[in-house]
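re the bet — no i am not wrong, look at it urself. input seq straight from the record:
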Amino acid sequence: MASGKSVQLSPSSLDLFLECQHCFWLDKKMGIQRPESYPFSLNSTVDILLREEFDAYRAKKIQHPLFKENGIKDRLFKNQKLLNQWRNNLAGIRYFDDNLKATLYGAMDDILESENGKLSPMDYKTTGAKVSKVYDKFQLQMDVYSFLLEKNGYETTGRGYMAFYIVDKDKGFLDRLPFRKEIYEIETNSSDIYDIFKDAVEVLNKKDPPAHSRECRFKNWLAGAKQFI
């Protein structure tokens, strides 16, 4: 791995692996990353504010209005100290596999707890699009979080939640940024995550990178740019 570090993969790492194994190999083995997109600092700020909001309801031990409005009976995970650790990008919730000698980890926004003590991961999403959409990478994220919870000894409900905060452009600005709130319950399936994790580690153990995927936009960009070099 780059700089001799051990293998540590996140949901976004597995998403990159599924998208293009060549880009994944360059990123995780050689430290050569794709050009970064423009940083969404506003999204990160909203995430911080949402965590504070949900934590306030957690401390009062009352249901968040978003859950009430959508008929969700599960309560917020009560262990604030542990949740803070799992939220931390440098710590997160982790699973080390002895056979692969590799770690899979993630930083979760929040967790819901059912009446029987089973857990469901929840993630906050901020978007300026008019319609919220659960993309494949969001599904993978929820599946990985469920896998990590299970590997840490917790039972999961087989579902996850995506809380979307959508900028309501129709209401104007007026020194405030209005949001429309939606929450989606999605089925989670952690059964395929280990195999994806295993395949990704095996790719990193190869001396040479696999070929680009056919749909890789960076491969196509490089191919087009070479005619001008």
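see?? The two ends are 30 Å apart (CA to CA). told u. also The mean pLDDT is 89. so pay up
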